[in-house]
Protein backbone atom coordinates (compact mmCIF):
# COMPACT_ATOMS: atom_id res chain seq x y z
CA UNK A 1 0.00 0.00 0.00
CA UNK A 2 2.83 2.38 0.93
CA UNK A 3 4.58 1.63 -2.37
CA UNK A 4 1.40 2.45 -4.30
CA UNK A 5 1.05 5.71 -2.36
CA UNK A 6 4.64 6.72 -3.14
CA UNK A 7 4.14 6.00 -6.85
CA UNK A 8 0.91 8.04 -6.79
CA UNK A 9 2.66 11.01 -5.16
CA UNK A 10 5.52 10.83 -7.67
CA UNK A 11 3.00 10.70 -10.50
CA UNK A 12 1.29 13.82 -9.19
CA UNK A 13 4.67 15.56 -8.96
CA UNK A 14 5.39 14.70 -12.59
CA UNK A 15 1.92 15.74 -13.68
CA UNK A 16 1.88 19.12 -12.00
CA UNK A 17 5.60 19.77 -12.30
CA UNK A 18 7.26 22.63 -10.50
CA UNK A 19 7.48 26.35 -10.20
CA UNK A 20 10.17 28.51 -11.72
CA UNK A 21 11.04 32.05 -10.67
CA UNK A 22 12.02 34.49 -13.41
CA UNK A 23 13.32 38.04 -12.94
CA UNK A 24 12.01 40.19 -15.78
CA UNK A 25 12.74 43.78 -16.82
CA UNK A 26 9.59 45.86 -16.45
CA UNK A 27 9.29 46.65 -20.17
CA UNK A 28 8.61 42.97 -20.89
CA UNK A 29 5.61 42.88 -18.56
CA UNK A 30 3.22 43.71 -21.40
CA UNK A 31 4.28 40.67 -23.43
CA UNK A 32 4.68 38.30 -20.49
CA UNK A 33 1.14 36.90 -20.41
CA UNK A 34 1.37 35.96 -24.09
CA UNK A 35 4.80 34.39 -23.57
CA UNK A 36 3.62 32.35 -20.59
CA UNK A 37 0.52 31.18 -22.46
CA UNK A 38 2.61 30.00 -25.42
CA UNK A 39 5.08 28.22 -23.16
CA UNK A 40 2.23 26.50 -21.29
CA UNK A 41 1.09 24.83 -24.51
CA UNK A 42 4.11 22.53 -24.40
CA UNK A 43 4.89 22.73 -20.66
CA UNK A 44 1.54 22.79 -18.86
CA UNK A 45 3.12 21.31 -15.75
CA UNK A 46 5.45 24.28 -15.18
CA UNK A 47 4.22 27.36 -13.35
CA UNK A 48 6.18 30.47 -14.31
CA UNK A 49 6.38 33.03 -11.50
CA UNK A 50 7.52 36.47 -12.65
CA UNK A 51 9.12 39.27 -10.65
CA UNK A 52 9.15 42.60 -12.47
CA UNK A 53 11.44 45.55 -11.87
CA UNK A 54 14.18 47.74 -13.28
CA UNK A 55 17.15 45.76 -14.54
CA UNK A 56 19.47 47.43 -12.04
CA UNK A 57 17.33 46.63 -9.02
CA UNK A 58 16.76 43.05 -10.16
CA UNK A 59 20.51 42.63 -10.60
CA UNK A 60 21.08 43.87 -7.04
CA UNK A 61 18.51 41.36 -5.76
CA UNK A 62 20.18 38.54 -7.69
CA UNK A 63 23.60 39.46 -6.27
CA UNK A 64 22.06 39.35 -2.80
CA UNK A 65 20.78 35.82 -3.34
CA UNK A 66 17.22 36.30 -4.59
CA UNK A 67 15.83 32.92 -5.78
CA UNK A 68 15.60 33.61 -9.50
CA UNK A 69 16.73 31.04 -12.06
CA UNK A 70 16.47 33.25 -15.16
CA UNK A 71 17.07 36.96 -15.67
CA UNK A 72 15.55 38.78 -18.63
CA UNK A 73 17.27 42.16 -18.64
CA UNK A 74 16.48 45.33 -20.57
CA UNK A 75 20.10 45.48 -21.70
CA UNK A 76 23.18 43.27 -22.04
CA UNK A 77 25.37 45.03 -19.47
CA UNK A 78 23.67 43.76 -16.31
CA UNK A 79 23.58 40.09 -17.35
CA UNK A 80 27.17 40.38 -18.62
CA UNK A 81 28.21 41.59 -15.16
CA UNK A 82 26.44 38.64 -13.55
CA UNK A 83 28.19 36.25 -15.94
CA UNK A 84 31.60 37.73 -15.13
CA UNK A 85 30.84 37.32 -11.42
CA UNK A 86 29.92 33.67 -11.94
CA UNK A 87 26.30 34.24 -10.88
CA UNK A 88 24.98 33.62 -14.39
CA UNK A 89 25.89 30.24 -15.88
CA UNK A 90 25.32 31.21 -19.53
CA UNK A 91 26.64 34.10 -21.57
CA UNK A 92 23.97 36.75 -22.27
CA UNK A 93 21.94 36.11 -25.39
CA UNK A 94 19.82 38.85 -26.98
CA UNK A 95 16.15 37.85 -27.01
CA UNK A 96 14.78 41.14 -28.40
CA UNK A 97 15.69 44.72 -29.15
CA UNK A 98 13.61 47.42 -27.53
CA UNK A 99 12.54 50.83 -28.78
CA UNK A 100 11.61 54.17 -27.21
CA UNK A 101 8.36 56.03 -27.77
CA UNK A 102 6.73 59.28 -26.67
CA UNK A 103 3.40 58.99 -24.83
CA UNK A 104 0.94 61.71 -23.85
CA UNK A 105 -2.73 61.58 -22.92
CA UNK A 106 -3.19 64.75 -24.96
CA UNK A 107 -2.66 65.01 -28.74
CA UNK A 108 0.84 66.28 -29.59
CA UNK A 109 2.68 67.40 -32.70
CA UNK A 110 5.19 64.56 -32.92
CA UNK A 111 6.61 65.89 -36.18
CA UNK A 112 8.74 68.14 -33.94
CA UNK A 113 10.62 65.11 -32.63
CA UNK A 114 12.61 65.67 -29.44
CA UNK A 115 12.16 69.44 -29.80
CA UNK A 116 8.56 68.85 -28.73
CA UNK A 117 9.85 68.45 -25.17
CA UNK A 118 10.92 72.12 -25.14
CA UNK A 119 7.31 73.28 -25.58
CA UNK A 120 6.29 75.56 -22.67
CA UNK A 121 3.04 73.59 -22.34
CA UNK A 122 5.06 70.56 -21.34
CA UNK A 123 6.08 71.21 -17.75
CA UNK A 124 6.92 67.66 -16.66
CA UNK A 125 8.44 64.74 -18.60
CA UNK A 126 8.38 61.18 -17.27
CA UNK A 127 11.60 59.21 -17.72
CA UNK A 128 12.85 55.96 -16.20
CA UNK A 129 15.76 56.37 -13.80
CA UNK A 130 18.90 55.99 -15.96
CA UNK A 131 20.85 54.65 -12.96
CA UNK A 132 18.80 51.44 -12.87
CA UNK A 133 16.70 51.33 -16.06
CA UNK A 134 18.33 50.97 -19.50
CA UNK A 135 15.36 52.68 -21.16
CA UNK A 136 16.06 55.70 -18.97
CA UNK A 137 19.66 55.70 -20.16
CA UNK A 138 18.44 55.60 -23.77
CA UNK A 139 16.00 58.46 -23.15
CA UNK A 140 18.68 60.73 -21.68
CA UNK A 141 21.01 59.82 -24.55
CA UNK A 142 18.32 60.80 -27.08
CA UNK A 143 17.77 64.13 -25.34
CA UNK A 144 21.48 64.93 -25.31
CA UNK A 145 22.09 63.84 -28.89
CA UNK A 146 19.18 65.98 -30.14
CA UNK A 147 20.48 68.99 -28.19
CA UNK A 148 17.47 69.52 -25.91
CA UNK A 149 18.73 68.05 -22.63
CA UNK A 150 20.09 71.22 -21.02
CA UNK A 151 16.85 73.09 -21.77
CA UNK A 152 14.53 70.42 -20.35
CA UNK A 153 16.46 68.62 -17.60
CA UNK A 154 14.58 70.58 -14.91
CA UNK A 155 11.32 69.11 -16.27
CA UNK A 156 12.35 65.48 -15.82
CA UNK A 157 10.43 63.28 -13.39
CA UNK A 158 12.24 60.02 -12.75
CA UNK A 159 10.39 56.73 -12.30
CA UNK A 160 11.83 53.57 -10.76
CA UNK A 161 11.09 51.44 -13.82
CA UNK A 162 9.80 51.77 -17.35
CA UNK A 163 6.35 50.51 -16.30
CA UNK A 164 6.15 53.23 -13.65
CA UNK A 165 7.18 55.71 -16.36
CA UNK A 166 4.05 54.74 -18.30
CA UNK A 167 1.96 55.37 -15.20
CA UNK A 168 3.54 58.79 -14.69
CA UNK A 169 3.04 59.67 -18.37
CA UNK A 170 -0.71 59.15 -18.16
CA UNK A 171 -1.32 60.57 -14.66
CA UNK A 172 1.36 62.97 -13.44
CA UNK A 173 3.18 64.50 -16.42
CA UNK A 174 2.34 65.95 -19.82
CA UNK A 175 4.47 63.41 -21.70
CA UNK A 176 6.79 60.48 -21.11
CA UNK A 177 9.53 58.55 -22.88
CA UNK A 178 8.50 54.93 -22.52
CA UNK A 179 9.15 51.46 -23.90
CA UNK A 180 7.31 51.11 -27.19
CA UNK A 181 6.28 47.59 -26.16
CA UNK A 182 3.90 48.99 -23.54
CA UNK A 183 1.75 50.54 -26.28
CA UNK A 184 0.80 47.10 -27.61
CA UNK A 185 -0.95 46.12 -24.40
CA UNK A 186 -4.76 45.90 -24.77
CA UNK A 187 -5.00 48.35 -21.87
CA UNK A 188 -3.31 50.99 -24.01
CA UNK A 189 -5.66 50.68 -27.00
CA UNK A 190 -7.19 54.10 -26.36
CA UNK A 191 -3.89 55.80 -27.21
CA UNK A 192 -3.43 56.27 -30.95
CA UNK A 193 -0.20 56.46 -32.92
CA UNK A 194 0.80 59.96 -34.09
CA UNK A 195 -1.88 61.42 -31.83
CA UNK A 196 -1.03 60.21 -28.33
CA UNK A 197 2.22 58.41 -29.09
CA UNK A 198 5.02 58.17 -31.63
CA UNK A 199 8.33 56.38 -31.95
CA UNK A 200 11.50 58.21 -30.93
CA UNK A 201 14.04 58.42 -33.75
CA UNK A 202 16.18 55.29 -33.15
CA UNK A 203 19.29 57.04 -34.47
CA UNK A 204 19.28 59.16 -31.30
CA UNK A 205 20.12 56.30 -28.92
CA UNK A 206 22.18 53.13 -28.89
CA UNK A 207 20.24 49.96 -29.74
CA UNK A 208 18.49 48.55 -26.67
CA UNK A 209 19.69 44.96 -26.89
CA UNK A 210 17.87 42.95 -24.23
CA UNK A 211 19.70 39.92 -22.83
CA UNK A 212 18.71 36.76 -20.99
CA UNK A 213 20.83 34.47 -18.81
CA UNK A 214 20.42 31.32 -16.75
CA UNK A 215 21.45 31.85 -13.14
CA UNK A 216 23.17 29.60 -10.61
CA UNK A 217 19.90 29.17 -8.75
CA UNK A 218 18.55 27.19 -11.71
CA UNK A 219 21.30 24.60 -11.15
CA UNK A 220 20.39 21.48 -13.13
CA UNK A 221 16.66 22.26 -13.39
CA UNK A 222 15.28 21.13 -16.73
CA UNK A 223 12.25 23.42 -16.30
CA UNK A 224 14.43 26.51 -16.17
CA UNK A 225 16.40 25.30 -19.19
CA UNK A 226 13.16 24.70 -21.09
CA UNK A 227 11.88 28.22 -20.41
CA UNK A 228 15.26 29.75 -21.29
CA UNK A 229 15.26 27.84 -24.59
CA UNK A 230 11.71 29.01 -25.27
CA UNK A 231 12.55 32.70 -24.68
CA UNK A 232 15.16 32.64 -27.46
CA UNK A 233 13.02 30.50 -29.79
CA UNK A 234 11.25 31.59 -32.97
CA UNK A 235 7.85 31.28 -31.28
CA UNK A 236 8.86 33.72 -28.58
CA UNK A 237 10.34 36.07 -31.19
CA UNK A 238 6.99 36.16 -32.96
CA UNK A 239 5.38 37.34 -29.72
CA UNK A 240 8.07 39.95 -29.07
CA UNK A 241 7.56 41.27 -32.60
CA UNK A 242 3.82 41.65 -31.95
CA UNK A 243 4.67 43.81 -28.96
CA UNK A 244 6.79 46.27 -30.89
CA UNK A 245 10.21 44.76 -30.36
CA UNK A 246 12.80 44.28 -33.09
CA UNK A 247 13.90 40.65 -33.44
CA UNK A 248 16.45 38.98 -35.66
Strand and helix layout:
Layout: H1 2-16, E1 19-25, H2 29-42, E2 47-53, H3 55-63, E3 70-72, H4 77-84, E4 93-98, E5 100-103, E6 125-128, H5 134-145, H6 149-152, E7 156-159, H7 162-171, E8 175-179, E9 197-199, E10 208-214, H8 222-231, H9 234-242
Parallel strand pairs: 1-2, 1-3, 6-7, 6-8
Antiparallel strand pairs: 3-10, 4-10, 5-8, 5-9
Q: What's the short version?
A:
With 248 residues, the chain is α/β, with parallel strands linked by helices. Helices cover 37% and strands 20% of the residues.
Explain how this protein is built.
The protein is built from 9 helices and 10 strands. The chain is an alpha/beta fold and about 250 residues long. The relative contact order is 0.21. It folds into 2 domains: about 1-95 and about 210-240, D-Maltodextrin-Binding Protein, domain 2 (3-Layer(aba) Sandwich), CATH 3.40.190.10; about 100-205, Periplasmic binding protein-like II (D-Maltodextrin-Binding Protein, domain 2). The protein starts with a helix and ends in a 6-residue tail after the last helix. Strand 1 (about 20-25), helix 2 and strand 2 (about 45-55) form a beta-alpha-beta unit. A 5-stranded mixed beta sheet has the order 2-1-3-10-4, with helices on both faces. Strands 7-6-8-5-9 form a 5-stranded mixed beta sheet. The radius of gyration is 20 Å and the shape is globular. Helix 2 (about 30-40) runs antiparallel to helix 9 (about 235-240).
Amino acid sequence: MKKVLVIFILSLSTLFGGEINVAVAANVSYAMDALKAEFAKTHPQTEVKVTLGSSGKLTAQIKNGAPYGIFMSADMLYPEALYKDGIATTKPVMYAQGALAFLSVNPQDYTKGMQLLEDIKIEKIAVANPKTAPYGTAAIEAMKKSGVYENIKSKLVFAESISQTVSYAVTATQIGLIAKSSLYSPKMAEYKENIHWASVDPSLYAPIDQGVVLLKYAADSQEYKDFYTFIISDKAKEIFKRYGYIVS
